[in-house]
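Fill in residues.
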């Protein structure tokens, strides 16, 4: 069973700008205590029932020490900068093949997707030279973890949050993500294939701390 440090409720806002989506995530996180209580009653069925999970788990590495060392006022003024640099750790063990979740990092949405074998094959058969931003799936994932596609959930056109992370959402003509704002289609590797977006969905810096826990940032 996956463990997460903090799990927020579902709050889809696919057509909103990333900043707006982030604000909603923040607001949702503020209710996490109450939700955690409810979640504890249904633990074990929650993740299975959800096809779309927001996980806002923040690792404040270095934050504690900084908070002790500086006065309260300085701490408050510094917190935004510190938090902006913070990493998150996400337990991905509950994300089944073919599922994706949306979490939040540096106040922006991040998609974590467990690609199926056909989705990997689909990504690998693409002629890289035909791509607007030529990148292989291997270049966008990590060795031995090619099934884990981790990208920012921010359209590279004007910053909307694309659809496709939740089951039942439109994934676009190439089976990845679709931004309805102006019609950008991303493939199963999160690469732009059609529409006005100029670049692939950005892959953030991340590392697997174990088979099931990934650190983003
Ligand atoms: S913001 Fe995504 S297509 Fe314009």
């Amino acid at each position: 069973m996956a463990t997460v440090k903090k799990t927020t409720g579902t709050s889809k806002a696919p057509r909103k700008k990333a900043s707006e989506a982030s604000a909603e995530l923040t607001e949702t996180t503020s209710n996490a205590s109450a939700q955690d209580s409810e979640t504890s009653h249904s633990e074990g069925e929650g993740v299975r029932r959800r096809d779309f999970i927001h996980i806002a788990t923040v690792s404040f590495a270095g934050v504690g020490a900084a908070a002790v060392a500086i006065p309260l006022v300085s701490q408050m003024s510094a917190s935004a900068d510190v938090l902006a640099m913070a990493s998150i750790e996400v337990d991905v063990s509950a994300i089944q093949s073919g599922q994706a979740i949306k979490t939040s990092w540096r106040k922006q949405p991040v998609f974590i997707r467990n690609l199926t074998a056909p989705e990997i094959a689909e990504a690998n058969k693409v002629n890289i030279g035909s791509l607007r931003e030529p990148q292989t799936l291997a270049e966008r994932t990590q060795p031995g973890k090619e099934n884990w596609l981790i990208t920012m959930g921010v359209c590279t056109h004007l910053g909307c949050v694309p659809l496709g992370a939740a089951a039942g959402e439109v994934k676009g003509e190439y089976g990845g993500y679709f931004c309805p704002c102006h019609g950008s289609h991303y493939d199963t590797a999160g690469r732009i294939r059609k529409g006005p977006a100029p670049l692939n969905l950005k892959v953030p810096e991340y590392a697997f701390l174990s088979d099931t826990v990934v650190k983003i940032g």
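The helical segments are 18-30, 32-41, 46-49, 63-69, 72-85, 117-124, 137-140.
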